[in-house]
Amino acid sequence: MTEVLRDTSGVLTGQDAAPVLASQPMRVTGGLVDRSRSVxxxxxxxxxxxxxxxxxxxxxxxxxxxxxxxxxxxxxxxGVLSAGSEEPNALVELRSxxxxxxxxxxxxxxxxxxxxxxxxxxxxxxxxxxxxVNDWLSPFFTAGFYYKTFMWPAAFWEKLYEPIIxxxxxxxxxxxxxxxxxxxxxxxHCDVLVIGxxxxxxxxxxxxxxxxARVILADxxxxxxxxxxxxxHEVGGQSGAGWATSAVAELAGMxxxxxxxxxxxxxxxxxxxxxxxxxxxxxxxxxLAGKPRxxxxxxxxxxxxxxxxxxxxxxxxxxxxxxxxxxxxxxxAYLNRWGVAAGKRVALFVNNDDGMRTARDLMARGVEVVxxxxxxRDIRRQAGLPHMLGVVTGTTGRLGLTGINVRRIDxxxxxxxxxxxxxxxxxxxTVALTAHQxxxxxxxxxxSAFLASPNAPAGLIPVGAAAGAFSTHGAxxxxxxxxxxxxxxxxxRAPAADLPQAEDAPVRIAPFWHVPGKGRAWVxxxxxxxxxxxxxxxxxxFRSVEHLKRYTTLGMATDQGKTSNVLGLAVMAxxxxxxxxxxxxxxxxxxxxxxxxxxxxGRSRGEExxxxxxxxxxxxxxxxxxxxxxxxxxxxxxxxxxPGETTWRESxxxxxxxxRKAVGVCDVTTLGKIDIQGTDAGLFLDRVYxxxxxxxxxxxxxxxxxxxxxxxxxxxxxxxxxxxxxxxMTTTTANAVPVFRHLEFCRQCLWPDLDVQLISTTEAWxxxxxxxxxxxxxxxxxxxxxxxxxxxxxxxxxxxxxxGGLRARLFRISFSGEMAYEIAVPTRxxxxxxxxxxAQGQDLGVTPYxxxxxxxxxxxxxxxxxxxxxxxxxxxNMGLGKMVSKKKDSIGMVLSQREELVRExxxxxxxxxxxxxxxxxxxxxxxxxxxKDPVAANDDGWITSLVHSPHLRHxxxxxxxxxxxxxxxxxxxxxxxxxxxxxxxxxVSPHFIDPQGERLRG
Amino acid sequence: MKFSGWRxxxxxxxGHRGWTANWRDPDPKPAYDIIVVGGGGHGLATAFYLAxxxxxxxxxxxxxxxxxxGNAGRNTTIIxxxxxxxxxxxxxxxxxxxxxxxxxxxxxNAMVSQRGILxxxxxxxxxxxxxxxxxxxxxxxxxAELLDRDQVRTMYPFLNxxxxxxxIKGGLLQRRGxxxxxxxxxxxxxxxxxxxxxxxxxxxxVTGFRIENGKVLGVETTRxxxxxxxxxxxxxxNSSRVMAAAGMRLPxxxxxxxxxxxxxxxxxxxxxxxxxxxxxxxxQSDKGGLVFGGDIDGYNSYAQRGNLPVIEDVAEGGMxxxxxxxxxxxxxxxxxVMDMSMDxxxxxxxxxxxxxxxxxGWCYGGFKATPASGYCFAHLLATDRPHATATAYRLxxxxxxxxxxxxxxxxxxxxx
Amino acid sequence: xxxxHPLLGPRDAQExxxxxxxxxxxxxxxxxxxxxxxxxxxxxxNPAGVHKELWFHEQGDRSWLVVTRNTVTHEILGAVLAxxxxxxxxxxx
Lengths: 1002, 416, 93
Known about the structure:
The structure holds three protein chains of three kinds.
Chain A: H1 2-6, E1 39-43, E2 46-50, H2 56-62, E3 69-70, E4 77-78, E5 91-94, E6 101-105, E7 115-119, H3 133-136, H4 145-148, H5 156-168, E8 183-195, H6 199-210, E9 215-218, E10 234-235, E11 238-239, H7 240-252, E12 257-260, E13 263-269, E14 273-279, E15 294-306, E16 310-312, E17 325-327, H8 328-336, E18 345-350, H9 354-364, E19 368-374, E20 387-396, E21 403-408, E22 413-417, E23 420-424, E24 427-429, E25 442-444, E26 449-451, E27 460-462, H10 472-489, E28 522-524, E29 529-530, H11 531-539, H12 545-552, H13 565-576, H14 580-583, E30 595-596, H15 597-601, E31 613-614, H16 618-623, E32 627-631, E33 634-639, H17 648-661, E34 663-667, E35 672-677, H18 681-688, E36 701-707, E37 713-723, E38 726-731, H19 736-750, E39 757-760, E40 765-771, H20 775-780, E41 797-802, E42 806-811, E43 820-826, H21 830-841, E44 846-848, H22 851-861, E45 907-914, E46 926-929, E47 939-949, E48 954-962, E49 971-976, E50 981-988, H23 998-1001
Parallel strand pairs in A: 1-7, 8-9, 8-15, 9-12, 15-27, 17-23, 18-19, 18-23, 19-20, 31-33, 34-44
Antiparallel strand pairs in A: 1-2, 3-4, 5-6, 5-7, 10-11, 13-14, 14-15, 16-24, 20-21, 21-22, 25-26, 28-29, 32-33, 34-40, 35-38, 35-39, 36-37, 37-38, 40-43, 41-42, 42-43, 45-48, 45-50, 46-47, 46-49, 47-48, 49-50
Helix pairs in contact in A: 6-7, 6-10, 8-9, 11-12, 11-13, 17-22
Chain B: H1 5-13, E1 31-37, H2 41-52, E2 59-62, E3 78-79, H3 89-100, H4 102-106, E4 117-121, H5 124-139, E5 145-148, H6 149-155, E6 170-174, E7 178-179, H7 182-195, E8 199-201, E9 206-212, E10 215-221, E11 224-233, H8 239-244, E12 252-264, E13 272-274, E14 281-284, E15 289-300, H9 308-321, E16 329-341, E17 347-350, E18 356-360, H10 366-383, H11 397-400
Helix pairs in contact in B: 2-7, 2-10, 3-10
Chain C: E1 2-5, E2 9-12, E3 17-21, H1 37-42, E4 50-56, E5 64-70, E6 76-81, H2 82-88
Antiparallel strand pairs in C: 1-2, 3-4, 4-5, 5-6
């Protein structure tokens, strides 16, 4: 952890009284950037400089750049509004090429040398955007206008209107290239997670950590301190920034504390699971070697202290969206933290005492303050401030603010020339995380803002400004007190609070939301939602907050309404004449701020999307040039091409013919294997299989059919009785896990007192099928025991040894219809065994075969597999209805007998062959009677599995056909409408080869 | 009021003073011929078709919150009729045809956009299954095309073709599939129903049914008793708890399904796409957000929110399929409560109580069904007979063994 | 979500596989009460509130658990071995 921390564990130290650079005309004295070093960057291709500690926004402002973006709908010119992650306006494309990141907030993009950024959502340039024609057409483009038009002529919506809308919409542009960076995931555990490193969070972390609790302190910013580094308040007799630096240093030095800057808690999930995104490398041009770009942490916290602060809200007035109109708190942050003046002549429009604080801070740095406009009649005037009692009714300046119109309380109107306007409509506690589990925030009249609901997630405790304690003292005190409570509830003893002295100004705010007037007053800056849109929504009865939001798109932009939701709600409340709580509340859903898809996926992408399971013979197969195929998580050899073979069919035909003529070897390790032991094992099997197993003699194998409780076939396989109380079950590859889970359910939940134990041994045994007339001859050379037909007949099984003593399991079972065995050895000997089989079988014509040949062999024999066992079919459908014993209770027995499932004319498994041997069929074709139309009413079934039989020299298939058993010899059409083809087929028995089973017993 | 481009133009010049409420907020009358419980897409569509197609003059929709606030307002907006089974495909194809005429039917632009839906496949077995399904669709008169790998690559060159764990082998394309603006569907039906005299009563929760001698007489609500000759319940997500008030247990569990949207991006994905080797499907909205989703969380829930593992699982599927989205940002997640039925298919049926009808069990596929569900439910309520395309959606189908199980997962709702 | 495993302590729910209503433990007898199977297999109370449900510790110790959880708040009120619940409901062999 230290590596990440070292470069950021403290607040940056300021360098005073640096000379004003011509290239940074708005840089004033003070601030916490490192002026001893310069950082070069480009914006829209033009070069600028800033300092370490700058954000892209602060560096652009310092350079005198105000215009940074365009709004979503009207393409209005936009500058920076905020100094944090709530920014709706200043969105840029950061970096270039495959690393391009659209919609990046300039306010949180940490400056690094060589940073490239471009503005977005305009054509052709940021300053001249032709799409701003939308702004002139705005009378037509009101909220929801598109629901009312574009309906005529009908076809034009998709062909004309919608494509235009799509092209105009969207913000930034994806690179369309694979993301080149790596992302990681990790897990963290703590007693107390502190979210936010402002005064409340730092105090809470100190309190908890000093008590000995395991603490994680996370803050989305790269510099810790929160408002302490954006304001001029003193703490404990030193600068707020200085106190923050020492607090962070103390925390970073404690072994029970993990300090995580650049880390956003993005979501609160059930039972104290918090999701955090750490931006490890976003402050470099590219991640350092071996480092991920970001890490997704899953944090398990017993308690969490929410010290996320508060976000300032705007006031709606005409043309309040011009570049140069900023939040007052942001103006102070740029000034105090970054040493940047928002303007040369700054005006303020506020409804609370933060306005005066902003004015004083600006004047202290020599910035001219031209007006402090305040609608409150009872303000406590401060000497030297240009107070104006009244409201701002409009602004001027297209690409940057040139002035404001003020209407005084006495009705006088005047124009005030200024190049920046700082606005404050009060502060909203950042309670987003408390609402992630559906606890709706509640309105608090005292502070005119929403606070966390009492139903907020247990263990998530808001403190400081997030809990409505807006003064520095209030933040420190509540952080200390709530952290002490939290750790004491966990059994720690919190030392007495050692609170440093700090300001404790009361909240003085008069709710004031918007200035009535003719012009457009923005509520949601990014999505261009104005007071007029809210009014229209009200007029059209979209009055519920959710309707308002959805109809106007208020709060649905990339900032998720952090600055706009409460304002929109308040305007709607005014229109309906109801109070804000009567009108509704704001909701928040994860993530707190937008999160890169890459970090949510972590390493699970590309070829590492899922684990790859390799069979024991994989390396050997690879050496032989096998072609592999994905079978679930497994990679299996699909076929083994030989030199000279040019198509897969050649290889597969050869493997099939060689197996039926001599002997073939196939790795069948992927089949599920379950050892079942205990005195009740036989009884247990009788209950989980439709057929009977307790009567199976020791040393014998039986085919088993397993049903789900609803009577549909779940799986099939063989189970071998290896001893009196020992069975070995095999499942299909696909169902190995679900069958095991099901058996454990039966064992633990249904019959808890049966003496039966289960263990999955799928990965413990390497298993090979050895099939063909020479199978016994080959195995005799390897197995140490007598496996003659007399000693080891068809369906025999037993524990044997191979190669002079290696323990093995041998089963005389056949999926191919040939005389065949499956032999299993401990997995680590699988590779050796297959090599030995190949070596020993040279003169017997041994041939490895893959899954394709396996499929051909089983279709030739008429065995069902995945395509037939699709979870929709019964034993009766498969022609195995007689296997379901009604004499005993077994899973699925009862429900398999329902009327629709036992219809005489239901689907039955059939064999299919083309009438013309040269014809080419397609699996998935449907059966239609000769002479009937290919429509659903005439749909008689479909082809499930299709192969070319090298024996029969034509295609053969399995399929389900209505009343199929009674239709042997009938001719039908196999229709593939997708390819517009059809083939006449004959319905035959599904057993194409050796229907009497003579080869099996050979 | 008729909506049109001309009307928008005229209003723009006159300060938009002429627009009126899209629907009234009437007080409930003492009784109605038909009460539809649930002001979601299905309930509103039912009321609309009852008034428009079946000439019912006394209809009310009762909604406990605000209309369109359930799954109509929290889905991924996909419309399609690419089903396999006979019980389903005619119904969804009927729905698709209603979508195709919806704007004109409603005089409301719900932005039905037939951008195509592509189901990718990654194995031969999947290809065979999609071939069977595509043929079934064509047999039912829907449209379907099977694309090979190269055709998919031409369509979406940015998919992961070269370094994939499960390489794309092709896809089943339904060109008539696509998306619609979900909220607008609810609003359009509400406005259309209201214009035809239907009372839409918001903030009116149904707390019980008045049933005498096996016949429903009306409903108890938070705004008092309201009489009705017939009551149709369309409250998917909450079906079990509402029908429990009528003494019924249902073959349904409530589960949470999360959905996701990215920040707005310039157009990059034209149609709808589903990943065949992971839980991920995606489209891009007209506003530019990538709208995507995956699997349900998998546990019973009435909370409209989910948990982190599914968010990660969906993102993994997305990155596996489209590694270009690594630097796109997830903007918002939300959760909806699904009626997950025992075979993954819905119900539109009478109940054991005379005059009480049930519509539910839509799993995570209710949005695309909205028009046909409304139409067929209206048909059943008005005529007492099931609509021809919805005859399979009976509550007794499990007794008979007539499941409509597209996925073949059996009686386990969270696997459908 | 975290599941308080009675043997292993709190474990992330991601280690588990969910089945559903714990009433699935009460399987009727196929030979003597076949008429009960439809309701057993298909009908659910599906409460909005406290729900007893089956979770399988698939990535863990392979225990089936009966977890008592509120389906509205997701709060977990307890978890026991399903085997014990089954025995408590009279199931044996």
